[in-house]
Amino acid sequence: xxxxxxxxxxxxxxxxxxxxxxxxxxxxxxxxxxxxxxxxxxxxxxxxxxxxxxxxxxxxxxxxxxxxxxxxxxxxxxxxxxxxxxxxxxxxxxxxxxxxxxxxxxxxxxxxxxxxxxxxxxxxxxxxxxxxxxxxxxxxxxxxxxxxxxxxxxxxxxxxxxxxxxxxxxxxxxxxxxxxxxxxxxxxxxxxxxxxxxxxxxxxxxxxxxxxxxxxxxxxxxxxxxxxxxxxxx
Length: 234
Prior knowledge:
- By secondary structure, the chain is an alpha/beta fold.
- 51% of the residues lie in helices and 18% in strands.
- The chain is built from twelve helices and seven strands.
- Helix 6 packs parallel to helix 8.
- The protein is globular and about 70 Å long.
- It starts with a helix and ends in a 13-residue tail after the last helix.
């Protein structure tokens, strides 16, 4: 028990999507040293079933026995999903503990992180575009903003997932600026992804913010600068 208290705690949040399944595989393949020295938790949030359509069709509340059946089936599917994930971890030599809660994934994942004192949260992203994220929201975006621990998001399209499965040639990019959190992100990658970056290209990227447009215009008027507007910005 004392040994567990000293270990770091890593949580992988999963659902039944392919990107979520691959996020777990990626963590097991690339965070092996970290996971072997940590407690691993596999978490699934069961969204509330929507019975609005049934209530409308029956002109009232949905039948209680039907609601109970749906909830029981959802629980069975969730337990099967977690058991499958636990088996995958075992095949990689990692002992995992499973957890599940019923409710909004945005809230339940962040609540579980705080409740268990998680040190690192890993989850997959469905790779939605900006418009879809605006209207449908994003669990990964919510967790990045609200989870009280570092969050590792694996944003992979279906095609890229297939490519990565065929060849585990990872490319790692660390985007940095002058802030301390940027430095800590680079240190974390060097420490926890050591095996990955020794077999792949590590790219350090820094974006230089453009000066305010009024200063550019002033400099252009004095002949010290030329105004350039990329086609993508028009």
